[in-house]
Amino acid sequence: MRCDSWVPLPPPAQPTRELPPAREEVELPLRGRALRDKVVLRIIAIDRAIHFVVLAALAVAVFLFAAHEIRVRAFFYRVVNAVQGGNADPSHLAQKGFLHTLEHLFTLKSSTLYAVAAIAASYAVLEGVEAVGLWYQKRWAEYLTFVATCGFLPYEIYELTRSLSPFKIVALVLNLAIAGYLLDAKRLFGVRGGGAAEAAERARDTGWEALERTSPSALSGEAPA
């Protein structure tokens, strides 16, 4: 029906009703703009769901690290001693690289680590709420996603001024595309007529009226059967 065609099927072997359902009982599949919006919003929702999983895992890891910092620190230096030989302490570790990054974590206070974990957890919740709302095409989720995305754009641009990487560039371009789509296509904040115009445009592509308007008989000028 999305291509404006009906596919004939054989009569059911064991019909559950004597007559076909009325039009009001038939759920038509989405078509046109309504279908495109659903697909795009669910792609964004999947992206937000991935962010949620990563940030939630990070928050849990930092919480556990902060709670067992002393034991983890002792284990870390034992491993470095075994690999490098000798006494591992901040003065013996490389000034750059993975080991130096790990060693730097042990210089942070537990309160700082808990604060980082709390921020990561809060951001994970935000991303999870966005993902659920966008998956079900909620208008509030579109606003929330737009505001949250734009809120992090200055930080992403600042990071690019410090160092360039393909990941940072792709992330910035992706977030700019998401913000642009939500603002323009979803007509947020009154853009191009706002929510009323967006709802009217969706209505033109859904329901029996839209199906009849684009049917072959209507396009050829014939009266519908």
Structure characterization notes:
With 225 residues, the chain is mainly α. 67% of the residues lie in helices and 0% in strands. The chain has helices at 32-67, 69-84, 98-105, 110-135, 139-162, 166-184, 194-204, 207-213, 216-219. Helix 4 crosses helix 5 (139-162) and helix 5 runs antiparallel to helix 6 (166-184). The longest helix is centred in the N-terminal third of the chain and has 36 residues, at 32-67. The chain is elongated. It starts with 31 loop residues before the first helix and ends in a 6-residue tail after the last helix. The model has no long low-confidence stretch (mean pLDDT 81).
Quick summary of this structure?
The protein has 9 helices and no strands. The protein is mainly α and 225 residues long.
Q: Strands, helices and their partners?
A:
Elements: H1 32-67, H2 69-84, H3 98-105, H4 110-135, H5 139-162, H6 166-184, H7 194-204, H8 207-213, H9 216-219
Spatial shape: elongated
Count the DSSP helices. 9
Low-confidence stretches: none
Order of helices and strands: HHHHHHHHH
Helix content: 55-70%
Mean pLDDT: 81
From the helix content, strand content and strand pairing, which structural class follows?
A: mainly alpha
Largest sheet: none
